[in-house]
Amino acid sequence: MESASPQRQALIDQLQLEPHVEGGYFRRTYQSDNRPSLDTEYGSRLRLTSIYYLLTDDSPIGHWHLNRSDILHFFHLGRPITYYLLDASGNLSTQVMGPDPSLGHQLQLLVPGGTWKASCLTSSEDKAEADYGLISEAVCPGFEFDDMTLGTETQLLQRFPQHAEMIRRFTQ
Ligand code: GUN
User: Is 52 in the pocket of ligand 1 (CB under 6 A)?
Assistant: First the structure.
């Protein structure tokens, strides 16, 4: 296995991140324990949760998954990350989060609840470039595993056959 570079390993250590089931690394940084929870049709939920989320050269893909909650993404550091978003009607859109608005990078990205999402660290030949991209996510209502579905290739191909290439590229 490739050994982690000082850059990405330092961030993983300093921010105390752990591998995420979707790919990449994360740590929850906030949950709204000091406020009454919300009653939703799926049960009681925290009002808001937040995480750091890191993609690296050795774990560059956030695989297709869907969340019932809205998720706001905030870019922090490193290389751009490309997001692939697939809504319930099968419309696929692409957005790039990154540090440079003049290149069309988004600093914030809203992914509405019910949207399928995959993400990928933008590749780079430049050895001087960061080997990671770091964002935060704010999830409202707060994140619960019951609200998250990891996409399987079979299930997604059946539902969205017109997007076979992207589905195959980003399923585990
Ligand atoms: N994705 C977005 N927020 C969270 C969280 O709090 N925990 C996990 N495991 N995944 C998330």
Answer: no
